[in-house]
Specification:
The protein is of the alpha/beta class. The protein has three domains: 303 residues, Rossmann fold; 120 residues, 2-Layer Sandwich (Domain 2, N(10)-formyltetrahydrofolate synthetase), CATH 3.30.1510.10; 82 residues, Formyltetrahydrofolate synthetase, domain 3 (Roll). Helices cover 36% and strands 19% of the residues. Strands 1, 2, 3, 4, 5, 6, 14, 15, 16, 17, 18 and 19 form a twelve-stranded mixed β-sheet that branches. Helix 7 packs across helix 8 and helix 7 packs antiparallel against helix 11. It is globular and about 70 Å long. The two termini are 20 Å apart.
Length: 558
C-alpha cells in the first residue's frame, strides 16, 4: 500500500487564516504581525500583557537515540498536541525552526510528518519568517566589527591569535570549518586563522532562545566574549560596541512565530539551537508565553534524551524557572530492531527477539529521565508494519522499568490515533506527581558537572581531558563563571562518543577535545569526541532531490 509523502499531505491542508488561530489563544488581531495568511509573529506588548496569567502544564517530548529506522519525535509532539485538543483540552505545541543545513543534507525538516504536521511545511523548512537570517546577520555583524576594530588601530589591544569569535552560515559546508581570512595585502586587514560554524551552533542563536525580552537579549549579547588580549584579559561584545546594532537586527526575530497544525490547532515555532552542539530547545519566550495561553504545552528537545532532554532539564529549565509535569519518550519498534542488530533492509520482517535485544537503549533513557524526578510515558510511534507481538515486547519491557508504553498512530490517523496517549499524558500531568530537579547544583565545580553527566547519563567510566582543558575550566571558575551549567557537544547516535556504539554501552570513556565559554548564553560548551560544530553534506545530500515541479510547486522536502 502506498502512502502520501509529507509534502503532499501538507499541501492538501485546509489551513485557517492565522487570525482565527490566534483567536483560539485569545490573541487579538492587532497583536499578530502577519507573514502572509498562515503565519504571524506575536507582539511583545501582548506577551507582556499575559505575564500575570497562571501557567499551564509543561509536557516534554524526547526520544531514544536516533537510528536510520526513524523515531518521529517532532511528529509525536505535534500528534500529542492535536490529541490533547481532540479530547477537549486547551493545548498548543512549541517546537524549533528548521535549519537549512539538515534540510538539504540528510536529516530533513522539522515540521513533523504524516498527518501530524505543522503548516505551512514548505515555508517552515526554508526561509520561514527570516529569523535564522537575522541571527546569521547579527553574528556576522559582530565578526565584521571585530576585524574592523583590529584594522583601525586595535585600541582594545586584541591579540589576533586569541580571537574566539568564529563566523557562521546556515548550511552544511565542511570546507569552511578552518580557514585563513584577511589575505590579499594591507587593505584587507591582518591575516589570521578562523573558521565557520553552522548558524544553529551560534551563541547568538542560544542567546535568542534563552533571553526573556529585548533588554535581556542586549545584555546577553554584550556579555559575549569575543577575544582576549596578550595578557589574557577578556574582550566583550559590548567593548566592540556591537550589542546595540545586533539587538536591532534581532528585534523582530525575538517575537515567537504562530502557525497551525494540520488540524488547525495553534503552534509556536521559534528558535533552533542544535541539540548535539547547543542546547536543542525552542525559545524560552515562546514556551513561557504558551504556558500563559494554554492549559497544556507540548514541547520537544532535540535528538535523544541523553542530549536534548538532559540540556532541557539542566540548562533551559534551570535558566528559565520551568518544570515539566511529564516526559514522553518516543520509540519505534523499527528502532528497537536496529538496536537489536537488524539491518535497515530487513526491518519489515517480524523479529521479536531483536526487539527485545534492542530495548536496552530505551531502558537507559527511562532510568535517566526518572532521575530528574519526572514521570515518564513511552510513546510507541506506530509504523504500519509493526506486529502485535513486537509491540507487546516493547510494552512488557517498559512495564518492567516502572513506566508505561502507549501505542500512538498519529502519523497515519492524526489526533484520532493519538487520543489514548493524550488521555494518559493529561492524567499524569494533572496528578502533579512530578518533583523536578536538575541532576547537579550550580555550585558544583565545572569538571565535576561534566563528570556527573558522563557517568550518570552516558554511564561512562571516566572523562578524559588534558591539562589545558582542566586549567581553562579552573580559570573560568576564578573569573566567576563556575556556576554555569555545561552544554555537552557530542554525537547524537550513541550514549558514548562513538556513533557506531548503539544500545546501552558501559565501560567507555568520554574524551573532551575542547571547552568554549558562552558567557552570553550562560553555559560552557564541552566538545567531545569527533563532533563537528560545522556539519558536512553526505555523499548524496537531500538537495539532489529538491526542486520545482511543472506547476511551480516544491518537491523533495521531507
Amino acid at each position: 500500500m502506498s502512502y502520501k509523502s509529507d509534502i503532499e499531505i501538507a499541501r492538501e491542508a485546509k489551513k485557517r487564516p492565522i487570525q482565527e488561530i490566534g483567536d483560539k489563544l485569545g490573541i487579538p488581531t492587532e497583536h499578530l504581525l502577519p507573514y502572509g495568511h498562515d503565519k504571524a509573529k506575536v507582539s511583545q506588548d501582548f506577551i507582556n500583557s499575559v505575564q500575570s496569567e497562571e501557567d499551564g502544564k509543561l509536557i516534554l517530548v524526547t526520544a531514544i537515540n536516533p537510528t536510520p529506522a526513524g523515531e518521529g519525535k517532532t511528529t509525536t509532539t505535534v500528534g500529542l498536541g492535536d490529541g490533547l485538543n481532540r479530547i477537549g483540552k486547551n493545548a498548543m505545541v512549541c517546537i524549533r525552526e528548521a535549519s537549512l543545513g539538515p534540510n538539504f543534507g540528510m536529516k530533513g525538516g522539522a515540521a513533523g510528518g504524516g498527518y501530524a504536521q505543522v503548516v505551512p511545511m514548505e515555508e517552515m523548512n526554508l526561509h520561514f519568517t527570516g529569523d535564522f537570517h537575522a541571527i546569521t546577520s547579527a553574528h556576522s555583524l559582530l565578526s565584521a566589527m571585530i576585524d574592523n576594530h583590529i584594522y583601525w588601530g586595535n585600541e582594545l589591544e586584541i591579540d589576533e591569535r586569541r580571537v574566539a569569535w568564529r563566523r557562521v552560515v546556515d548550511m552544511n559546508d565542511r570546507a569552511l570549518r578552518d580557514i585563513v581570512c584577511s589575505l590579499g595585502g594591507v587593505a584587507n586587514g591582518f591575516p589570521r586563522q578562523t573558521g565557520y560554524d553552522i548558524t544553529v551552533a551560534s551563541e547568538v542563536m542560544a542567546i535568542l532562545c534563552l533571553a526573556n525580552d529585548l533588554q535581556d537579549l542586549q545584555k546577553r549579547l554584550g556579555d559575549i566574549i569575543v577575544a582576549y588580549t596578550r595578557e589574557r584579559k577578556a574582550i566583550y561584545c559590548r567593548d566592540i560596541g556591537a550589542d546595540g546594532a545586533m539587538t536591532v537586527l534581532l528585534k523582530d526575530a525575538m517575537q515567537p512565530n504562530l502557525v497551525q497544525t494540520l488540524e488547525n490547532n495553534p503552534a509556536f515555532v521559534h528558535g533552533g539551537p542544535f541539540a548535539n552542539i547547543a542546547h536543542g530547545c525552542n525559545s524560552v519566550i515562546a514556551t513561557k508565553t504558551a504556558l500563559k495561553l494554554a492549559d497544556y504545552v507540548v514541547t520537544e528537545a532535540g535528538f535523544g534524551a541523553d542530549l536534548g532532554a538532559e540540556k532541557f532539564m539542566n540548562i533551559k529549565c534551570r535558566k528559565a524557572g520551568l518544570a515539566p509535569s511529564v516526559v514522553v519518550l518516543v520509540a519505534t519498534v523499527r528502532a528497537m530492531k536496529m538496536n537489536g542488530g537488524v539491518a535497515k533492509a530487513d526491518l519489515g520482517a517480524e523479529n521479536v527477539e531483536a526487539v527485545e535485544a534492542g530495548c536496552d537503549n530505551l531502558g537507559r533513557h527511562i532510568e535517566n529521565l526518572k532521575s530528574f524526578g519526572v514521570p515518564v510515558v513511552v510513546a510507541i510511534n506506530h509504523f504500519v508494519n509493526d506486529t502485535d507481538a513486537e509491540v507487546a515486547a516493547v510494552k512488557d519491557y517498559v512495564d518492567g522499568h516502572g513506566a508505561e508504553a502507549i501505542v500512538s498512530r498519529h502519523w497515519e490517523l492524526g489526533s484520532e490515533g493519538s487520543a489514548d496517549l493524550a488521555t494518559r499524558v493529561a492524567e499524569i500531568a494533572d496528578a502533579d506527581v512530578a518533583a523536578f530537579a536538575p541532576i547537579y547544583p550550580d555550585d558544583m565545580p565545572l569538571f565535576e558537572k561534566i563528570e556527573t553527566i558522563a557517568k550518570r547519563i552516558y554511564r561512562a567510566d571516566e572523562v578524559l581531558a588534558d591539562a589545558k582543558v582542566r586549567n581553562q575550566l579552573r580559570d573560568w571558575e576564578e573569573a566567576g563563571y563556575g556556576d554555569l551549567p555545561v552544554c555537552m557537544a557530542k554525537t547524537q547516535y550513541s550514549f558514548s562518543t562513538d556513533p557506531s556504539l548503539r544500545g546501552a554501552p558501559t565501560g567507555h570513556s568520554v574524551p573532551v577535545r575542547e571547552v568554549r565559554l558562552s558567557a552570553g548564553a550562560g553555559f560552557i560548551v564541552v566538545v567531545c569526541g569527533d563532533i563537528m560544530t560545522m556539519p558536512g553534506l553526505p555523499r548524496k545530500p537531500a538537495a539532489l532531490s529538491i526542486g520545482l515541479n511543472a506547476e511551480g510547486e516544491i518537491e523533495g522536502l521531507f
